[in-house]
Specification:
The chain is mainly alpha-helical and 80 residues long. It is built from four helices and two strands; from the N terminus they run E-H-H-E-H-H.
């Protein structure tokens, strides 16, 4: 399992909000078979950035992390 840091997580999910990840890294994450995850503190950091108005997500925050707390597995219902 690969644990993404907050910066990589946001850049991977929303390349339109910041400089996108390099194509080779993005492609590698898309085919990673052992799963992807983010830490609880990354979820808290994103929530705080949204609350302060520093970061605006295309979807409301509860829709993004509400299925399985902080699980970013492509097998998660959040990615279907």
């Amino acid at each position: 399992m690969i644990v993404l840091d907050t910066h990589a997580w946001v850049r991977w999910l929303h390349p339109e909000l910041a400089q996108p990840l390099p194509p080779n890294l993005r492609e590698w994450l898309e085919v990673e078979e052992d799963g992807l995850a983010v830490s609880a503190i990354s979820c808290l950091e994103v929530a705080q950035l949204v609350k302060k108005g520093v970061l605006t997500l295309p979807l409301p925050l509860p829709d993004r992390i509400g299925m399985q707390p902080c699980s970013m597995s492509r097998r998660s219902p959040a990615y279907r």
